[in-house]
Give the backbone structure.
Amino acid sequence: MEDRLGPSLAALVRRLRSRRLAALGFTALATLALALVGTRLSLDEDLLSFLPGDDPEIRGHARALRAFKALDTIRIDLGPLDSEDQLVAAVASFEATLLGEGAPLVSHVFAGVPDLRGAEIALAIADLPARSLPSLARPEEVAAILSKYDDDAALDERLASLFVTLNGLDSAGAQTVIRRDPLGLEGPWFGRVQELQAVVEGARLERGRIVSSDRKHALLLVEPRARASDIEEGEKVMTLLARARERAEGAAGSPLRMVVAGGHQGHIENARAIKFDAWFTSLVSLAAMFLVYAAIFPRRWLIPLTALPLVFGGVFGTAVCALLLGKMSKIAIGFGGILLGLADDFIVHLYYFYELRSRDEHPEPAVSAVERIALPTLAAGTSIAGSFVALAASGFPGQRDLAVFATASLAGTVGFCLLVHPLLLPSGKAPRPLPRAGAPLRAFVSFVERHTRAAVLLAVVATLVLGAFAARIRFEDDPRALDARSKKTLEGEDELSARWGDPSALALVVASGASLDEALAVNDRAYPRLEKLRDEGAVRAVSSIAPLVPSSTVQAARRAAWRALWTEERRASLAARLGRLGGRHHFSARAFEPFLERTASDGDPVSAESLATAALPELVGPRIARDGAGALVVTLVRLRGTDDDALSWVGAFERETGAAVTTGRGFARALVRLVKERLLSCGALAFVAVLAILVSTLRRWRLVLAATLPLALGLVWSVGLLALTGTRIDAVNFLIPVLTFGLSVDYVLFLASGYGRSSGASDEVEQAQGAVVASSVTTLAGMASLLLARHPAIFGVGVVSFVGTSASLLAIFVLTPLLLRDREP
Amino acid sequence: MPELRPPVRAGPARVTAAIVAAAVVLSTARADESPLDALIAKVKKGMAGVKTTRGRFKQTKKLAAFDDTVESKGTFAIERPGKLRWEIESPFKSVLVIAGDKGARWNETRKKVERFALADKPGIDVAVKQMFSWYSGTFDEAKGSFDATVEKEGRAVSLVPKNEKVREVMARISIVFSPDWKTIESIALVEKGGDRTDIAFEGVELDKELPAKTFEIEEK
């Protein structure tokens, strides 16, 4: 390796050391300024913003979840209470607390429909076909009903049945409907409207409240003002709920249990787990790092200073993100912080060579160390940055944020390490000699070199075997696998699912369009297809507003068909028959005048806006949403289960209707598909980026091969080992193999840099091995600390990064010396 | 999240049943001992110890749809807390039985026994609930929804919906209680335009042992 960079940087450091105070003062001021800039960075806690916006399927799922607040709504079960009076009192008290003092935190509470309002809704529903049947009724169904009563006997039987109905216990109000619709033309429409509640299992309205079938529990749906991922507000909401429960218990006069599912609860528990893990694993990692430093470095007072480059890197990265992004994912910055810890390798290399030079009584050990490590450090830093850029290319906004933060932080750390940190290092001799940290690696390499054939054979066999396993790596498609919710919370969710229906078995079928009418048109296409699926048993129930509000096109077509059907001749004939046969069942001659009048009219068109805002806001309002891209209409579909079989109809349905189906399972499957796609593309990009950097740095094909072959094989081995141990690739850890690939460049470059030096080659190799051992031990310790994490996502990152880096190191230690050994004297 | 928002039930022949259900409500807004409070207290006290009620009923329907007043007669039986039989013997035959959250019905035009869950028949559910409410004296719900006045020397209550739309369908409900407050003498449902249904209960027996098959229908 021809190294012009090292001497240049060394000269710069030498000049800076001559003005040390000024340089350090400037650095301190710059850090302060950067920290101030960094405070402008706002953190986005919305989980959905972590998802890629360039994938139509993912975008569709995220849009549906966001528009209909599927992730934000909190479901609350109150009970068990023996008396309905107690239950009603408890719910009233709970609701009052949330809507009273909880108003700043809660935007909406749904605990049922008061009796009178229920009656108004029933009237509004009944009023719809009364005014607009020609726009609502399907022409083929109207024709089929009319043809059924072409026969006098059938019509006579129908009229007899209506007479029975009018005299039955449940006859109140039936007269109005019978007079306007003696043949039951509204029947199919009412049947569909009644299906609106079909997806709600186990719930019923009692005294205006949603109660369970055993009438001992009540259900409330609470929409907080803050998103579920807003932990700070979420804590306040949970405190409010606890207070509301206490008061409800007082109102009920009996012990009252509250079970909460959805919304903030899971996010808070996940955030707590992540927070705990971040502190705990960081402390463990830091302790391990300091232990290694204490064992290796003779000047222990310098050890605390190792944190300075990392701190500066973090401040620099945050400032860059504030300037470039303005807002970034909180999750990304969390993971970025963990990854930044891995940059301690560069400090280890600096210290290691600094102490080596000091041991050798070099007059300027810090300057000489910079000269030695500058090229491999910058090359490794650039390679790691290259793999971060590959992360950014994944299209996941969170990964992009992570890439920008980590790359900028890395640049800051490397810059501080090479230019500022050497100013803090004294020129005097160390109190004790540097241990031969490279000795174990040296012994290992010697052993491999003595058994070259066996080592090569083993490497080939390992590659073939682990490569075969690597092809079978499994991807995690269960979102709960990344969930750190407590056992209590999960049991609560199971309890709610058992009592009120499993929300994960509910699909959101979303029709969208530039305008509401366009969305309704898609909804009109989707609804009959869903009805067919229900009739075939592919889904269990369908709850759609399509019967209530067809699109304007469908309404116009139905009205035209209505006009064509009701000819004067048909009307006159039916009027005569109803008059003649009705008399047999006490019906007056004018009994069916309202019906005959409506057959001569088109009725009123139905307005979706008016239903959603005035007549039926409780029914229609929540099914319609608007966002920047247009309007959305949601249909709820109760699935036959939560597995893939239950969703087998989705692909064909989406193609045929243009509506999109969102379920937890479907979302997870889309993520897995994307993860697979992006893992391959990002891996390829990272490889090309790293290869380009290695070629431009190492220049000689043999060195490049010695560097890249172990990295490639290490990647194959690590994926094979992950497959062998049953570790699954998930939406969080999927890019870690790409990252460890980039991080491992650090080791291979430093190791290769030892072989690349012409003078004192053997000593340089040993020194390089020592530095690599020291830095890799701290890195592995950092990764191993993640294995202590409670949160499965962080644990998964720990497993993948630890296995990946270990496999890469093994491949580097076995293959790089073999490929470069004839460089030794 | 909208998935668990149960819509209010509606059906062609059940539309106003929901309103009638709401009409079981009496306004109890005033805390002082009004005639209404006194009536509620008497009804609750009178009906509190009654386990079963059975008897005959005569229903008179005067509807615009009919060219004459239609009279129907039959028997009824109630066993608290959740059993009911309503049998019409003339001018046609029909039976409705309810036991808990399940029911069955038969009539001579339908000819087959239909068994159902009350949750699936909201119209019947509402009608049955109102019967149980009236026959148990639990009038304390949905305060303020109706204007209630006490009539007939304090033995009857008249309920008028405060809501205009509701009044368009059900103008008034009147319930007359027996002198001992243990049962109901008559119910009148008055609709807009003068249509009305009057149900008079006769030969009422209290706390008689009712055979289990009272609340069942066998296939005929």
